[in-house]
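tokens incoming
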């Protein structure tokens, strides 16, 4: 029987938990609230980098971890994007795109799991996409006017990578491969 509760898995799950303090900080007006939101958000981003590294380094790569890591990413990104949409910092079409992409990938992964009993792993374009989305979300709530042009560039780069990653995941689903080179 495979170990479920590893350091890496707990780090992945912490991203979901960190939605609460990020949301609180964004939705509550107190001194330096966006700075606190950014710190909690960056802690979540840090766990995304650290969990995979530790899983490999400590030989704790598990089927459960392969599921929890991307699901935690999707929940965390959607949760923060929803809060930012409510505040008017993220357009509705972007929120829908983020959630729709993640649902497509999730359903495709479930399909492969059911048909072939294989847990698909994240691919490089997907990782780039989620990091660009995270950067766009961070820039959207930090709201530094001198970074507005950069924020718009990141917005469109994240859209391009989300579309590209869906194409790569769809190709994986249609071809039935679980690892893309």
């Amino acid at each position: 029987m495979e170990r479920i509760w590893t350091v890496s898995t707990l780090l992945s799950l912490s991203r979901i938990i960190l939605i609460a303090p990020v949301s609180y900080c964004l939705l509550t007006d107190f001194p330096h609230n966006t700075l606190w939101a950014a710190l909690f958000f960056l802690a979540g981003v840090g766990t995304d980098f650290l969990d995979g590294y530790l899983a490999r380094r400590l030989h704790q790569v598990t089927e459960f971890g392969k599921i929890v890591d991307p699901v935690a990413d999707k929940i965390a990104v959607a949760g923060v994007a929803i809060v930012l949409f409510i505040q008017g910092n993220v357009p509705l079409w972007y929120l829908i795109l983020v959630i729709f992409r993640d649902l497509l990938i999730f359903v495709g992964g479930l399909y492969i799991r059911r048909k072939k009993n294989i847990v698909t792993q994240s691919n490089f374009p997907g990782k780039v996409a989620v990091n660009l989305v995270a950067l766009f979300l961070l820039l959207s709530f930090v709201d530094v006017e001198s970074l507005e042009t950069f924020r718009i560039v990141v917005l469109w780069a994240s859209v391009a990578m989300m579309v590209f990653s869906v194409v790569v995941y769809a190709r994986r689903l249609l071809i039935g491969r679980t690892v893309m080179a």
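note: The chain is about 80% helix and 0% strand.
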